[in-house]
Amino acid sequence: MATAGGGSGADPGSRGLLRLLSFSVLLAGLFLDFEPDLLPLCPDVSFFTQPQPPTPQSKGTGLCRGNSVERKIYIPLNKTAPCVRLLNATHQIGCQSSISGDTGVIHVLEKEEDLQWVLTDGPNPPYMVLLESKHFTRDLMEKLKGRTSRIAGLAVSLTKPSPASGFSPSVQCPNDGFGVYSNSYGPEFAHCREIQWNSLGNGLAYEDFSFPIFLLEDENETKVIKQCYQDH
Prior knowledge:
Layout (H helix, E strand, L loop, with lengths): L11 H21 L36 H5 L6 E3 L2 E3 L4 E3 L10 E5 L5 H7 L5 E6 L5 H8 L5 E7 L55 E4 L2 H13 L1
Parallel strand pairs: 4-5, 5-6, 6-7
Antiparallel strand pairs: 1-7, 2-3
């Protein structure tokens, strides 16, 4: 580049522009070399730190020395069991999420009175409710089902030991209307009139819920969620 005096040296403004371009190329190279699956090598450094000399672990990983924003915000839940949607020719039962997923403010329900915050009092719906399996009753679920606009989902933590009285999400007369439980075998058998052999059945497995429901099987994962709720 020529100077005003006809020389071939670069003026200060041009040198500054060259430095800016070189810095941009360097940054582009760092981002292009970033490998997400190498993040576990560098869990404690932010994306916004100054470039550091490479170490044997971080050599060739570019900005992998910084944790991704996703890993700072989200906690993976690895041991879960989902409630699923079941269909037949006329009806649907079970649960489902929105087509783009569901997001809500976590609210830990430790006693049934806490439900009032979720249903009416809480100012920031929808809520993602976390409760222990002992609170997973038909009465509570019917209350949640009646206010679906305030419910983003439900997480049920597995508590041990299991309830001494037992638990069954099926109906009190399974296969009601079929086989020996139909009128063709006599009125004494139809609809379990003679013997209601599943007295604990609450019928939740045959209800239709428009929000997702998950069972959390790992006690440590449940503790992390509760700690986050208590801290914030």
